[in-house]
Amino acid sequence: SLTIGIVGLPNVGKSTLFNALTKNDVLAANYPFATIEPNVGVVGVPDPRLDRLAEIFGSARKLPATVDFVDIAGIVRGASEGEGLGNKFLANIRESDAICQVIRAFKDENVVHVDGKISPRSDIDTIDTELILADLQTIEKVLPRLTKDARLQKEKARVLTAVEEAKAILEEGRTLFAAGITRESDQGRLLYDLHLLTTKPFLYVFNVDEDELVDEAFRKEQQELVAPAEAIFLNAKIESELIELDDDEALELLQSMGQDEPGLATLARVGFDTLGLQTYLTAGPKEARAWTIKKGATAPEAAGVIHTDFQKGFIKAEIVSYEDLVECGSVPEARAKGKARMEGKDYVMQDGDVVEFRFNV
Ligand code: GDP
Q1: ipTM more than 0.95?
Q2: Which residue's CA is the closest to the ligand 1 atom numbered 9?
Q3: How far is the CA of 2 from the centre of ligand 1 (A)?
Q4: Is 220 annotated as a binding residue?
Q5: Is residue 13 marked as binding?
Q6: How many C-beta neighbours within 10 Å does residue 346 have?
Q7: Which of 220, 221, 299, 332 is the most buried (most CB within 10 A)?
């Protein structure tokens, strides 16, 4: 499955956040015999639709989609030079599908900042710089060979152009993601074989003081700083307290801070979206479940997420949209009202499709 690597300078609250994430681990709750790796937190994506489906179908349990967060220790200035921890740090980031930077905004004299001052902008620059330098090194390594090959092969010439453009952006101190060169873009595809770090999607968690949670001007300023990436605002210490409370108490504490959901829930949702994922839904007496697919997945690909045999033997999918199902109150009623559709193998799945697959075995 796809993973989000958590990075940040020392003392910004990464461990506090990560501990909260792992305590929230849905694997532990739903799959008691699953092997849980110490540096991976599997977090449920909150989905109120599952509650409603479980009511309609009388489902015994609810299984949300999940996002995997990986704790990547060891960013230090000079990481890109590949000394000791630096190498491991870069290798771990290379394996992640998205990069989540944790940025300190909270003030606390008892917690030392490595640079002696609280400055989100300069922290982001420090981390970006290491990633940018690592990408520039990768590019320097391939350039001589690529330049040679480009004289003879048209395809290589196109790659060379993309690499030279990427190099210019990086030399300006910008990440490729910020410049719009994502893995899915035309240029990103040409750069694919280089496995550059800064074409990965970024997201930013600002670990803030309580008053900053509701400070719209502050939030807007930080959001603009990291655009086109998403900014999430939370207080890691409060998040770690929230998960110890029962639902009612947690809600009360959240509301007293002007929040309507825990920061971890926002992080899971935004992270899921940043990875380019979406869900479709299934429900029955056993379980109501959200399944993870890539945006743009077809019906047989969606079936394959449940079982490869479902994809191989795919005949069709009976689909009712979540809204129609809730309005009709049951699948038979939705069928009677003409709201159930039979879709074939070219159908592109939509978020909120409630599905039953028909297949040959
Ligand atoms: P890491 O080095 O980035 O993993 O940071 P830690 O999670 O170990 O946190 C460093 C210190 O900051 C610890 O003493 C935490 O208790 C404290 N800390 C973490 N988050 C917050 C926060 O939101 N507010 C305050 N005041 N302290 C925090």
Answers
A1: yes
A2: 13
A3: 27
A4: no
A5: yes
A6: 8
A7: 299
